[in-house]
Structure formats: C-alpha cells, structure tokens
Amino acid sequence: MGIMGRRGIAAMVVAAALLATGCSGQDDSGQQQQAAGPASLTFWTWAPNMDKVVALWNQQNPDIKVTVNKQDGGDPAVTKLLTATKAGSGAPDVMQAEYQKIPTLVAADALADISKNLDPSVAKAFPEAVWNSVSLGSDAVYAVPQDTGPMVFYYREDVFKSLGLQAPKTWADYAAAARKVHQSDPKKYLGTFSAADAGWFSGLAQQAGASWWGVNGQSWSVDIDSDATRKVADFWGGLVEEGVIGNKPMYTPAWNAGLNNGTQVGWVSAVWGPGVLEANAAKTVGKWKMAPLPQWDAAKEATGNWGGSATAVTSQSKHQAQAAKFSAWLNTDPEAVKALAQISGVYPAATAGQTEALTSPPKFFANQPDFYQTVAKAATTVAPFTYGPNVNVAYNTYNDAFGKAADAKKKSAFLTALTTMQASTVKDLTDSGFTVAK
Amino acid sequence: MTEVLTQPAPPVALLRATNPPKRRQTSPLATIVLLAGALYCLLPVVWVLVASTKSGGELFSTFTFAPGTSLADNVGDLTAYRGGLFWRWMLNTVLYAGGGAALSVIVSAMAGFALAKYSFPGKSAIFNMLLAGVLVPGVILAIPQYLLLAQVGLTNTYWSVLLPSIISPYGIYLARIYAAAAVPDEVIEAARTDGAGAARTFVDVVLPMMRPGLVTIFLFQFVAIWNNFLLPYIMLGNDHLFPLTVGLNGLLNQGAAQPALYTLVITGSLLSILPLTALFLSLQRYWQTDLGAGAVKA
Amino acid sequence: MTATHRRRGPRKLAPYVFLTPAILLFAGFMAAPIGYAVYLSFRATKVTGLGLGKGARREVWAGLANYRRSLADPEFVHSVGRVGLYGLLLVPVMMGLALLFALVLDSGRARGGAFSRTSIFLPYAVPAVIASLLWGFLYLPDVSPFAYLAGQLGLPSPELMSSRYILFAVANIALWGGVGFNMIVLYTSLRAIPSELSEAARLDGATERQIALRVKVPIIAPSLIMTFVFSLIATLQVFAEPTTLRPLTNNISTTWTPLMKVYRDAFTRDDVYSAAATSVVIALATLVLSFGFLRLVGRRAFGQEA
C-alpha cells in the first residue's frame, strides 16, 4: 500500500508540474476580462487582522467589495461551510480552508473549480508541492494557497547553555537532550506529546516520509499505519513511557504556565510559533532560539507542515469569477502578500513572498536575525504528503486513540493507537462508498 | 405524568411563597452547612474576579489567588479588541436573551392561560405534545433547525437565533401552573360580565395577576437562551451577530497557530457574569419556580 | 371552570387563538426539526469512486442501517454506561445537597441565610461553557490552588483530570451549576407549607430534624420528584461541560457522552445521518426513562389521586 501511495503522489506532482509548465506561456489578460462586473463578496477567515488586508483590496477595487467574517478557526469554519453546503444556502463566497480540509470540502462539493477563472501564471507563484494540495493532482483548482507552516524546533537557549546542550540535529539528539533536561529537574520537560493536535503529529509523520492517503487510479489508499508513521509513534511513545517527555496536550493553561515558568524547555512547532510564544510567555523574550526540526537522517533534510491554509471559492458563490480574482490577488499580489505577512502575521505560501515580504525576524526573535532565512531553507525540504477525503475522521480518531495511549504512557499503546487510526479511517471510507485500494 | 402535572395548583403555593422564614434560635451547625455551600459556590467566581486583574504573564506565573494590577488594562484590551466587538456581543446577548425571553413570556402566558382556564377539545393532547418538547435536547434540534432555516435563507441572521428561542415548553408549563393558581375564575367571570372580550380580559386582568410568575418565566428563559451555546454557534457565521458565549469561545479556540486569548476570555467572562448576576439579585424575590406546585396538596 | 365558558360564539375559539403562537412556533422550531431528524436518520450518502467533483456523492435511503450502526457502536455503548454512572453519582448528591440547603434555609436557624442562599444560587447565572472554563483552570495542576495547597501541606498534587477522577471533575461542574437552582425550587415549595403544620409538630415535642423529615419532606415530595426528573434529563444530556474540558486532558474522548457522539458525527465527521439516528435513540431513551420514573413514583406519591 505504501508504494501505491507514493506512486499516486508522484503522478500528482507530475500532473501539477505539467499543468504549470504547459500553461506558463500565456499572459495575464484573461483574468481581468473574466472577473468583470460589480459584486459584493463575503470572506470567512480566521487569520488575525484580515479585515485590514482586505481593506487594501476594497480601496483598489470599489466594485468588488469584500466583507470579512472572522471565524473561530479552521475546524468550526469548515463545519459551518459543510452544513451550509448541505442546506443549499448560507455559505460565503470566499473561504479560508486548511490544506488538509480541501479534499473533504471538494468531496462534499463545497468548493468551486476556479481553474477557468485563474490566470495560469498564478500556479507558478507557489512551490509545486503546495500547489498540488489545492489542485489535488488534477486539472482543477480548488483554492489559491495562502500560507504554509513548515515545522521547526524552538528551545530555551539559556537552559540549553546551562546544561551544555546544543540544538538537536537528529531525533536521537532530541531524545538525549530530553533525558538530560528532565534529569536536571524532574519538573522540566523538553516537550510534550499532544494527543489534541493531530496536525502536529501528521506533520511529524510527513517529515518521516509518510503520506497518509494516496490516489491510485479511481481509488483511494490509506497508509496511516505505515513504517514511517510507526517510527514516529514508537519514538514519542518511548519518550513518554520513559517519562522524559510530557503527555499532556498543548494549548492548555498548564502548558502556558510551563512556557512561562521555564518547565517547557522546548517546543516542536512551526514557523508561526513566535506569535503563540509572545502571547503566552511574553516575559521569556530573548531566551528562545529557533532551529530546523531534528532529522531522522541528517544527510537527507526534511520537514513537515503543521497548519497552512488556502483561499477557496465556494460552490454556492454567485460571483465565482470575482471571488477567484480576489483570491489570486490576496495571495500573489506583492502588496497583498506583504500585508498578509506583516499585518496578518501568516507565513505566505507564495515563494516570492517568503523572501521579499519577510526581511526582518519576528519581534519575539529579534535575537535571531536570520530567522526567516532558516525557515525559507526548511520550507524547501517539506516532504510530499497527500490528504484524503476523510481527514476529519482520521484526526478525530487520533485525538481519542492517542489520548488513551498518552494517558497509559505505554509505547505499545502508541502503536495500537496507530492501528486504530488506520482501521477507522479505512472503515469510514468504505462505509461511505469510496473505492479503497487494499 | 400527565395526571401529576395537570392537577390544578392551589393558590396557597404562590401566596405564601414570599413570606420570609420565621426567625428561630440560630444553630451553628446550620450556619456552617450553608456557609460551606456558599464558599463552594463562590470559589470559582472569586477566582475569575482575581484572575481578571492579572496580566497575561501574571496569569500563569503568580499564585492563583494573588491579585494582579491589570484589571483596567484587561478591560481596555477587551474593549479595543477588533473595535469594541466584545460590547457588540454584549448587546447581542441582551437582544437574544432579553428579547427572546420577553417574547417567550408573552407566548407562554397566552398558551398557559388557555390551557389553565379553558376547556376545549384537544386540550390535553396539545398540552402533552408541548410538554414532550421539554425532553428534546438542543443538540439534537440544532442541526435540523439549521437545515430548515437555511431553506428560507434565515441562517446567519438575528432571527435564526431569536425565533427558535421563543418557544419554551417549560415556560408554557410554568405559565399554566401560575395561571391556574393566581387567576381565580370569578375574576375572569366578572370581567366578562362587564363586557370585556377575551383579549381584553387577558391583557387587563390576567397578565397583571400572573406578573410574579411571568417574571420567573422570563428569568428562566433568559438563562436558557444565554446558556444555549450550540444554536448561535451553528447558526451564525458573522461574528458581529455573536452572543457573548460564542464570542468568548472563539477567543479561546483560535486554532493552533493563534494563541488563546486567556486574559481577554477571563475578563470577558467576568464582565458577562456581572450583569446577569445583577439582574438576578434585583429580581430575586420573584424567583419562585415551584416545579411541583401543580401537585402540592394544601 | 368549564361552566363559565359554555357560551357559544367567538369564545369557543378564544383558547385556540391564545395557543396559536405557541403551536406555530412549536411546529416550526421543534416538531418540524424533529420530524426532519427522523427522516435524516433513515438516509445516508453514497459516494462513487474517488468522490471528488460534482455528482460523486448522492443521498440514498438507508433503512435502519444508521440505527444498527449507532446501537452496535462500542463507543456509544461506553458513553451510555459512563453517563449512567455519572447520573448515579451526580443526581443523588445534587438533590441531597439541594434539599439539605433548602431545609436548613427554611428552618430559619442559620445566620446569614440570605447571603448563603444568594451565593449558592449565583452559579446558575454562569453559562456552562464559562463555568467549565473556570473549573478547568482550577483543576490543572500547574495553575490550580488545590495543587498549591497540597504542595504546601507536603502532599502529592491531585491530578483532578486523570482517568480516575475525570468523572468526578465533570460532575462537580454540573453540581456547582445546578445545586442552587434546585435548592431555590425546593425552598419555594417549603415556604408554601402552612406554618401551622410545623408548629403543631413542634408542640407535640418533635425535633427540627423530625419535623423536616416527617412533615416537610413528604409534603414537598412532588417538587422533589419534578426537580429529580428535570435533573435526570439534564444529566442524560450532559454536553457542554465535558466538551469545554476536553482540550485540557487526554481523558475525555470525543464520544465521552452520547450527545458528544452526536455532535462529533454531525459536525466533526459530517455524517448528519448517523447523528440523527443516535439523536432519535437518545430522545426515546430520555422519554422512556422520565415517564417510567414518574409512573413508578407517581403510583406511590399520588396513589390516592390516581
């Protein structure tokens, strides 16, 4: 199954590449013609200060007025969009959607294929792997990439120094550092295994070379319980069983307290981490450092994504051309991308944006001037990963199964949890009638 | 169940309800029991009071019950959040809970009065049907309510939250008890002989007599709407229409890439509990939900 | 009563007119959604192939398949067992405390009764979502005052949200929010008892405790029963508290209670059909339980009237 999955991705990447090169010769005049006519659009998004970014658009495009409706976050917004799609009304025109939700939304017929409304040059603005997650390897385009979340590692430089530790290059180094930190003070942990954050775990699996879904002709394959993911589960299960890594979820008041009082010494996270650290542990400014994610194979650098989203046009929108025009502007126009990065604080998906819009480090990491250069380098090593149409089921099973495993603090329980995830994801697909390759 | 509930209530249940208890010799044990209960119930309230005085850093670094000095800053931050959105949520809550409860009182009073004071074909069938509604949890109703309201294009509007909140089987049940207990037949008969129509009698005679009971229904429904998280959560996409609970929940669950805004949530919780507490304290003497009054025997 | 309304004409219509708004709203916002939920519970979507693109997904008749799946799901069975245990724990404690507080208040023998009464009632004004958030903070070892106290006393800090205590932790929030309301209801009933009854018992040499148990409690039995039933219904519908606590602990799954499973199926898994089937099962079970209970105690408490 693993091989089929890999082959599927390869096919998709090739398809996307062909699409990109095959169309690169055209100019961008078509876009304006198709997006003619005044319209009033609603935009569901949870990115902070998006209304200020959109104000730029409204200034320049008085006949296509975009209104921002701030959402609670990726999950609630998708829930609402799916419900609205089922009901036949109530959806916005434009919608921020996390990459892993796009296959689900496409399967529910919630998103419009905007390939005809987009200038082909739009595709070239993004890395292939990212574009692939909005085209799903087909000729269709279901969204324009907005931001990505390459994973990196944050650690307390002061604590590391006092213990004579270096930023871990490999996961073995990470484990050794975790032991040393915990030995120095039983209250201190280098990190925690969070059963609440499926996106975090799937990012780590992605780094290890896993791809949980795959397309093989007209059928899906599910490859969650693969060697690569087992390696990751085994690693974290081992550290939790040993007791040198915490087993409580992230994003709790207790975790915040840990960041503040220095008992959480490190955080395996993503490029957007500084915002969270600044809001939750402002006092610790200047004590943190960012490093690339520890590697499984130091010679073959890779990382995963945690978070990241795209701007999609809904199937219910009556102004799909205008909505597509706006989506393309938001994520490729230099001024817009700069505003996204600096006002809204997201890490833009557009290749140019990553270097041009982010020239100085985040405020919280003023001590690390090359912050974004390091991230940009890591971003080029993001491993390919395909999401399936029932990511919600897989993630939901992750929460429940790994919650149990983390509470049991047994390595074997982590591997059982993975088997549970695989089984329930396959069962859900089969129950719904999807063709699943065995 | 129906036999139990349909017993006419004796007026005594209402008339005596406001008598203060007679003072007797106090007992330390009785005082301690109640104070222990009070302490338990006040603990989290005191906590939120203290926590809302702390800055974001202090919240996670100082002792739980050690007060901070940032209350004014926190309220300022909350007010500044997206151009005073919090206060908009407050107003929305007043509209949903206050407006919904007021309309609910009118609907319940009319229905309760009809059920208590008229005899007509289908009466017990209607009453039982309405009563069965008490048993249906909101979680179950929310999805089909959304799907149906979407058919008429009402989702993501004030109406989508307000309209479903007006019907309260429990309010009707209480209104029926109060009408039976507080409105003597003779008074209605007297109004009628004076030539007043049914509507006139209801507005001029019945409603004033039911007033204490109606305040109870108002409070009860107010809390029920204010507590119903799921309905507005599902119905509303535009956060300018949110009530407080949904808005605060949003501040707490921002998704992984955004930090939870704990200080704002805590300060917001405090500010949202305060007006309701004030409302309760000022209307406390009306609070007399006598669930069993329908069957109490004098 | 009937005698006064025997005249012909518009008067016959009056009760229906008074009931019209209630019936219309009931039909639109309760009956129709319930009917629709029942309809959905017999439906399902079927996907073909990859399921991408238009028309790959259609709604089909599913018969009883959703019900079979719902009832056979071990997670559902577990959640029912868990809520049963939760109810056995919560309802008696809540009713017992509410009755105790009400009786003590009614005896008029406590100092500061008004203060205590108001304080105990206060949590009723706090929505479950906010209440759970506050208690969540008080439970987490790193921010909890209980852990701090235990630390000062040299005791190990209690893991209040560990798998052993989580049921108590959730029940505590419901207890906190519900005891005051029930207390006020019972207290109101107690105030309605003619004082002559207690005075007579007192003259006969009965102690306050005996008066409370032998005179007052039997008289307010109907109120007790109704509050019990409403508490039971609320218990079976527990949802907001565990949902709010869930992100803080590994020990609350997304199917921890039956309604959480409904929510998960409908919103996380986008399967309103299974959710509708489970909803119907829960609604029926609630109906059977509450009517069954009322019938059981009704026979005894109101035997003379039946």
From TrEMBL, chain A:
Keyword Lipoprotein carried by entry: yes
The keyword Membrane is annotated on this UniProt entry: yes
PANTHER family from the UniProt entry: ARABINOSE-BINDING PROTEIN-RELATED, POLYGALACTURONAN_RHAMNOGALACTURONAN-BINDING PROTEIN YTCQ
Signal sequence extent: 1-25
Keyword terms: Cell membrane, Lipoprotein, Membrane, Palmitate, Signal
Pfam families: SBP_bac_1
SUPFAM superfamilies reported in the protein's UniProt record: Periplasmic binding protein-like II
Species this protein is from: Kribbella albertanoniae
Protein name: Extracellular solute-binding protein
TrEMBL record, chain B:
Matching Gene3D superfamilies: MetI-like (1.10.3720.10)
Localization (cell): Cell membrane
Main location class: membrane
ABC transmembrane type-1 domain mapped to chain residues: 90-283
Domain of life: Bacteria
GO BP field: transmembrane transport
InterPro entries: MetI-like, MetI-like_sf
Keyword annotations from UniProtKB, A to Z: Cell membrane, Membrane, Transmembrane, Transmembrane helix, Transport
Record membrane topology: Multi-pass membrane protein
Transmembrane segments: 29-50, 94-115, 127-146, 158-175, 214-236, 256-281
Pfam families noted in UniProt: BPD_transp_1
Cellular component aspect of the GO annotation: plasma membrane
Family membership: Belongs to the binding-protein-dependent transport system permease family.
Xref: PANTHER family: ABC TRANSPORTER PERMEASE PROTEIN MG189-RELATED (PTHR43744:SF12), ABC TRANSPORTER PERMEASE PROTEIN MG189-RELATED-RELATED (PTHR43744)
Protein name: Carbohydrate ABC transporter permease
From TrEMBL, chain C:
SUPFAM superfamilies per the UniProt record, alphabetical: MetI-like
Biological process per Gene Ontology, one example term: transmembrane transport
Gene3D superfamilies, alphabetized: MetI-like (1.10.3720.10)
Membrane topology: Multi-pass membrane protein
UniProt-annotated location(s): Cell membrane
Domain of life from the UniProt record: Bacteria
Protein name: Sugar ABC transporter permease
